[in-house]
UniProtKB/TrEMBL annotation:
Belongs to the phD/YefM antitoxin family. Keywords: Plasmid. It comes from Photobacterium profundum (strain SS9). Coiled coil: none annotated. Pfam families: PhdYeFM_antitox. This is Antitoxin. InterPro entries: Antitoxin_Phd/YefM, YefM-like_sf. Gene3D superfamilies: YefM-like domain. The keyword Cytoplasm does not apply. Transmembrane segments: none annotated. Antitoxin component of a type II toxin-antitoxin (TA) system.
């Protein structure tokens, strides 16, 4: 992934828009990453994957409910978050 400073991203915004059509670009401010810019197509694909994952986890939860293997909401969402990070 390419990396640009916030100042470069600002002054060469048109170039940034062209770069993100090929791959995401990381934006750094004061040497620390603060954002990633990506194409609309790539963002839509990422959102679709997240939705698919959440649907899969809810389907598993429905099975657990049917089998009376219940957990509280906080535990469910903590596990969901952890699974997304893994």
């Amino acid at each position: 992934m390419q990396s640009l400073t916030a100042n470069t991203a600002k002054t060469k915004f048109g170039d940034l828009l062209m770069k993100v059509q090929r791959e995401p670009v990381q934006i750094c401010k004061n040497g620390s990453p603060v954002a990633v810019v990506m194409s609309c197509e790539e963002y839509a694909q990422l959102e679709a994957l997240k939705l698919q994952f959440i649907k899969m986890r809810f389907a598993a939860a429905e099975k657990d409910i049917a089998e009376n293997n219940l957990v509280d909401g906080e535990t469910f969402f903590n596990q969901l978050e952890q699974d997304m990070l893994d």
